[in-house]
Amino acid sequence: MRRGHVTHLRRARVSARLIGLASLVAAAASCSSGGGGVASADGASTTTASVVPTTVAPTTTVPEPVCSVPAMPGDSLTAIAERNGLTLEQLEEENLLDRTDVFLPGQLFDVCLGDTVDPADPTLVEPVGAAVMIQQRELNELFANSSLEPLAIDGDSGRLTRQAVCAARMLLGLPVHSRHLVPGSEEEATIFAATEFRIPDGAPIDTDRWILVDQTCQVIVTGEGNDRVVDVYPTSTGSEGHETFNVRARAFRFDPALDNEGWHDSSSFPVEVDNPLNGNMYKPIYFNDGQAIHGAEFIPPFPRSKGCARTFPKHQDAIIEWLGLQDMTEATWKAQDIDVTVLVRGRYVELPDNA
Fold it and tell me: Which of 39, 160, 273, 304 is the most buried (most CB within 10 A)?
């Protein structure tokens, strides 16, 4: 097995996991002072109770609105919007979409304006800890040969666990989102049974080497043409007001910054004290103006940078070695020296801890 090739065998484990009754019609009794009496055993006259039929209004069941709809083969965002009575702008705003985003048949879109996600979606229900621990163990096995950090087996389906679930969805061709993995679902069974990754749909496989920055999952995937996925890394992209742009571009500059042990002070966001804990960029690889993939000491599983895509320094070194740049001593502005295409896509959606 080639080093860095995230394909490994493991055992497949698959977890096996009319409205209302009719109402009784009430009868109303009416007493008469005149005829219609019936003699009782003691000769006293009693009256007959008349049953007055009542009209029961038919019960109408109002169906719950369908908030999550799948994309169909050949769909466009405009078609999805119009089919569900929305404008393109409303669909984009509700789903935090960019018109350059890549989406696949079966991917779900929220078509109920004003909600965060479909309230009927089972992925909103946080799974119990025991089920999450099983998921965490399986995810650790799936990513064992990658650089994605191992999950703590703690039963918490929090941001780190959902980051791994999201990455698994992307690398197995499932609809990509970062909500909970539902125990016993077909999706869970697919992830548990997986033994290798597939190249993510939409990756720039027409180039010899590519880097895919997925903002939905907050991961970086490296690959070689249509041949293989090389590795998977955690990342933290641009925070609100400093977004990382969705773009496809060739990396055009690499700075080893050897005069400061690899730490380059950003010209856009310089810091007074030059050190790795103070916002500096470790050996940046630039791909879109001042935006770069670079090392940093803090890589949370959510956007935190000033427009770049962060990696841990050890992961940045691994990317640089894969690109064959580890022996460079000076900065280069030649795209052919770096020879990699970067694709940034997706949009991070902030969800509550129980979503």
Answer: 160
Residue 231 bridge partners (DSSP) = 222
Q: Are residues 179 and 289 in the same domain?
A: no
Rg (CA), the chain: 30
188-197 per-residue burial string, b: 16 or more CB within 10 A, e: under 16: bbebbebebb
In terms of domains, do 84 and 186 share one?
Answer: yes
Number of structural domains (the chain) is: 2
Domain that holds residue 238: 210-345
**Percent of the residues in the chain that have a pLDDT greater than 70, as a whole number:** 72
Instruction: Give which of 218, 181, 156, 209 is closest to 349, Cα–Cα.
Output: 218
Q: Output the CA angle 248-338-309, nearest 5 degrees.
A: 50
Q: Is a pLDDT exceeding 50 seen at residue 272?
A: yes
Query: What's the whole-model pTM score?
Result: 0.71
Beta-bridge partner residues of 293: 285, 309
Residues 215 and 337 grouped into a single domain:
yes
Q: Say how far apart CA 237 and CA 240 lie, in whole Å.
A: 10
- Residue 250 main-chain phi, psi, to 5 deg: -85, 135
Q: Is the pLDDT of residue 14 over 70?
A: no
Q: How many whole angstroms separate alpha carbon 302 and alpha carbon 216?
A: 9
Q: Please say whether the dihedral angle defined by the alpha carbons of residues 230, 73, 351 and 97, taken in this order, is positive or negative.
A: positive
Whether 50 has a pLDDT exceeding 50, the answer reads: no
Whichever domain contains 340, its CATH number is 2.40.440.10
pLDDT in tens, 104-138: 677 778 888 876 566 667 888 889 999 999 999 99
pLDDT of residue 290: 86
Q: For 65, which DSSP code? A: P
The Cα–Cα gap between 181 and 126 comes to 9
- 283 Cβ neighbours under 8 A, 6+ residues apart: 254, 255, 256, 257, 262, 264, 294, 295, 313, 316, 317, 320
236 shares a domain with 176 = no
Whether residues 155 and 72 share a domain: the answer is yes
